[in-house]
Amino acid sequence: MGENDYPSLLLLPSPPDPLTRDSLNAAYRPSIQSALLKARRPTGAARLVVAIVYPVLRGQFLHSKTFSWSEVQNLIAGVYSLISILCAQFSIDTEMDGGPGSVDSTVILIDDDRNKRYPDDFRPAIEPNNTVIVDMATFASAYFPWNFIFTVRSELGYQVSQTYLKLAEGRQNLLQSQLVPVEGGLTMNVAKREPGGLPAQTPTYPTVCLGGTFDYLHPGHKLLLTAGALLLQVPRRGDPSPPCRYIIGITGDEMLKNKKFADYVQSWEQRARNVILFLSQLLELSPRGWKDGTSAQIEEKDGDFQATFRDGTIQVHCVRIQDAFGPTITIEEIQALVVSGETRSGGQAVNEKRLEKGWHALDVFEVDVLDAEEVSDEPTRTENYAAKISSTAIRQQRASRGGNTI
Q1: Which Gene Ontology BP annotations are present (predicted)?
Q2: Which of 243, 260, 342, 394 could disulfide-link 216, Cβ–Cβ 3.0 to 4.6 Å?
């Protein structure tokens, strides 16, 4: 893997409080815009990791952390919406492997408090907890090397970048040209939470499920997959407990034959690989980073792909589905189901089927819809925005370019 093929990193300080789409737009839009424009390459696809430092985890002990799922997924949805709006504005393709000029962006949270101080003799190491969210020391130890590191020109941005660079020292020999300052936004923190005013903490689950087509993996898919991963109850390393399971039903090719521009639908195998490769960015923690060009080791069978992460504590299982229910009515031990606004009714239908079989109903979690209305500068932008994050529209664009079918 050449240096240009490495992802770039944008380090963002904590989000505004209270968090609204307008406040998020003011805080992050200038930085994300600069990073997208600087990261894209005319000769190939680029990748950008948008890492947000956000002290969201609660709990005294490393292996008993909790957080508010609704609060976290709302932030991630807002950032992916902002990325999509900017990519639409500047004609940047957002899907994975989008080709020259595209930027494949991934949003990751780092649980770290800006008031935390690391002693001079501190040695960062990979220390996962019972969630998929990592702290700054673990992030610095497992995420590298980078093509560019974009740092925000603000007091908070400077604190974040200095902490990261100190902890990441020795992981990568960085040239000065690879450290790129970008414009910061306006962040206001006016909400004063009382000790009892924290948002309700969300339970995590040994087995989580969701479904979709995942054709040309784009920000809407990434939000859904990230939101599901956040619900996983990750066993501690060395624990005799079985791994937590993330079961993802992916629509079979036969069910997509009547889709618009069906000749350009990616094969089930390609869609399943892309799902696992995307999740590997959230779940894998290797002390070698990705400098050897290593990727997820996928055990591939017909309609059944599996991969494990974090020393075998997390198992991702992609299965081919040929109906609206998939594994939710064949695997009893599933506890949680993640849906989007468009598939809300499907969650209710799943639970009705499970109750008919005498099984427990699933806890259903609904992710936010990526929305351009609240932060677009002009109403006409919404049309262009929608065209950028729709798999149908991406297939249409590929067809209009005369590209090869998948």
Answers
A1: coenzyme A biosynthetic process
A2: 394
> Within a domain: residue 389?
no
Q: Show the domain range for 22.
A: 3-366
CA 119, 125, 130, 131 dihedral sign is positive
Q: Domain for residue 55, yes or no?
A: yes
Cα–Cα distance for residue pair 28/132, rounded to 1 Å: 23
Phi/psi at 271 (5° precision): -65, -40
Which contiguous run of DSSP H or E holds residue 106?
A: strand 103-111
CA distances from 145 to 30, 288, 375 (A): 25, 9, 33
List of residues 6+ apart from 281 with CB closer than 8 A: 49, 106, 108
Strand bridging mode 103-111 / 336-339: unpaired
Q: Which of 151, 120, 114, 152 is nearest to 135 (CA)?
A: 114
The rounded distance, in Å, linking the Cα atoms of 332 and 362 is 10
Count of domains for the chain: 1
In tens, the pLDDT along 71-92 reads 999 999 999 999 999 999 999 9
Condensed to tens digits (0 to 9), the pLDDT of residues 126-165 reads 999 999 999 999 999 999 999 999 999 999 999 999 999 9
Paired with 365 in beta bridges are 338
**Distance in angstroms between the alpha carbons of the first and the last residue of the chain:** 24
Asked if residue 402 is part of any domain, the answer here is no
Tell me the two tokens of residue 176: 């000065």
